[in-house]
Amino acid sequence: MNSKPLRVWINTLIKKYCPTGIIKRMTLCRDILPWLEKQDELTFWQKVELRFHIFICPPCWDYKKQLHYISCSCKKTFEEAKQMTEKSTKLEKIEFDVIKKNCKKNCACKKED
Fold it and tell me: Does pTM top 0.90 for this prediction?
C-alpha cells in the first residue's frame, strides 16, 4: 500500500474530526520549512511538532523528500568531484614528470645553445 494516500486520508480525518483548537495550534507549513534545514538545533517538542506535521501534511512530506534527495545528490556530486580532482592531480604530476624527463633528454633549446 502506498503511504501517500494513507497520509492524505489521515490528514482528511484530522481536519474533519479534530477539534478546531488543536488544528489552530498546529504549526503552519511556513513555520515548519525552516526547521527542516536545522533539525539538529531543534528542541524535543519542536522535533515532535515537525514529525507530526510532516506526517499529516502531504506537501511538506514531499518537500522533505525532495530536500533529502537534493542533499544526497549534492554530497554524491561533491565526492565524485573530489575523487576526480585527486585523480587529476596525480595524473598531472605524472605527466609533468614524464615531460620533464623527456625535456631533459630531447630539449631542442639546450642543443641550440
Answer: no
